Amino acid sequence: MPARSHEVGTGPPDGPVVHDAVLADPAGTLLGLDFDGTLSHVVDDPTQAFAHPDSVRAVATLGRHLGQVAIITGRPVRQVLELGGFEGLEGLEGLVVCGQYGAERWDASTDELVVPPRPEAIEELAGLLPSWLAARGAATARIEDKGLAIAIHTRGLAPSVLHSLTGPIGDLAAERDLHVEPGRQVLELRGSAVDKGTTLTGLVHDLGTRHVVYAGDDLGDLPAFDAVDALRPRGVTGFLVCSASAEQDALVERSDLVLDGPDAVAGWLGAFADAVVARAG
Ligand SMILES: [Mg+2]
Fold first, then answer.
1. Residue 98 burial (CB < 10 Å; 0-12/13-18/19+)?
2. Which of 16, 101, 164, 172 has the most crowded Cβ, counting Cβ within 10 A?
3. Ligand 1 geometric centre to CA of 216 (Å)
């Protein structure tokens, strides 16, 4: 394993772009990528969080060489396909998008999207939340109905709003047997116990993956980091990448490589793609 460097780089890293075992065996490699804050910048309007074009290009190149590329995101699959521009892209015929942490799954090879039924508790919350938030002085928080989950966004509001909502939302979720997923200026309630860790581990087992590279930026990525760390003693090479931000530093100490947000991730993915192509040539 390369030395863990916690210096935040703004471009392609000076050190190894990825574990050498990955470059020696790309076909045995799974590349897992978070979307928001990793492939795209976190912006005030989440409908405008488009993937960095350099990342999309690099991921398409990597898709031609690696065993599997998977986007694992809290967003519904359809949003990621619109914001990422991955659909129909040459090189990404094998792409898998695991939406809503993996509860939804789309395969580029078949264009099949599998979405489980909407939980009754989420349906109930959708009706309840506007008045519930208004009663707690948070009427301007943005409610995002994802179908299988509901997210409450507090970006642009005073930090005290998110802080004051955290406890009551926890109670609201517990009463309905829902899971709370905290993120950067967002609290999400969902019915599924699926997280990015179970999803990543499932892909590793399905594919017989020998090496996993995973990049993320937020608390929802921690289960994926845990999963990679749990796979290392079982002989799977792991390489963890943090897309760092001023809002969240929970992944920094856990990472093999720390990059300064989505622009630096794009530089790294380009360097990773170049290294894979050079080794293949
Ligand atoms: Mg993210």
1. buried
2. 101
3. 6
